[in-house]
Write a structure and sequence with these properties.
Distance between the termini: 9 Å
CATH architecture of the largest domain: 7 Propeller
Strand content: over 45%
CATH topology of the largest domain: Methylamine Dehydrogenase, Chain H
Helix content: under 10%
Strand order of the largest sheet: 1-28-27-26
Structural class: mainly beta
Radius of gyration: 20 Å
Amino acid sequence: MRIRLGLILGALLGCGSHLAADVLYSVTDLGTLGGGYAQANALNNTGQVTGASAISNSGPIHAFLYSNGQMIDLDTLGNFGSNGRSINDAGQVVGDAALTVGGPMRAFLYSNGQMINLGTLGGNNYSSAYGINNAGQVVGNASTPNGSIHAFLYSNGQFTDLNSRLGVFSILALAINDAGQITGIYGPNSHAFLYSSSNGQVTDLGSLGGTLTYGLSINNAGQVTGQSELPNADYHAFLYTDGQLRDLGTLGGERSVGEGLNSSGQVVGYSFINSSFTISHAFLYSGGQMYDLNDFIDPALRLTLYEASAINDHGQIAANGGNGHAYLLTPVPEPGTWALLGAALLGLGAWKAARQFV
């Protein structure tokens, strides 16, 4: 194992030519709730995953919590479908659920075995929760009494309409970190924003030269990832760090999306690999380079990961495969040793890390 890790390090750093031959992640199929489909949307630092799964081959989709090797059905608010969109380290899940067949969606909080309807911003039509932090604060968007949709912050049982805080029209609040910093989409230009609920400061993250930019994930350092339009109308994943929007590129196609971000600034998401936008692969961006995650799993699995939706601080990744199943990728070797490999990927002491294992 000591020699093998050294070879992996060399390959990742451009010193080897057989990266795909070295398996960097073990792959766990999360299964389903009874049907043939499941999708992973979020992952916490204990390895719990949330998302949605079919409960039968012809039945509705229910939110799930994957924990301790089991997929748990979180049920619904009206028995007509639900979707888990975010999870914190306490295992609390937020998302949305339909109240009636084809009817309005409502944001929910699943905690202590119960799904709670969070309501709306005073309207009757719609709400959805997209992010939750370790303090239990929730963000999303919801209808108002006049029928418009505004971003919200739900904290201590109270809704705050973020329109009044952002100073411009708010569209979506998509993620919140433990410091209460929020990202999403706002304004007439549909730009990503960074809002601090503690001091009210709002930062427009700008774009990569085009118009539309949206923030999908934020870590506790205030780094943000998402997608931004380019001048040529293509879209690339970005990492907002140190006040700058960094273009993460693609896996060879013309579009990519950053969906998950951990405390080390590693990003996961998906990138189209063809010009017709029909084939996407899951990626890991680390140390200034985008890697195809399909190169890091055992080829004997005959599995194609088309999307990576989340990455935690231990390097575990929630991903989705072309066969309609959700997966948890766990670094090999164990996370303690993986930290050294992560440092190499980030360009921190790569030579020294390799020398310790050869």
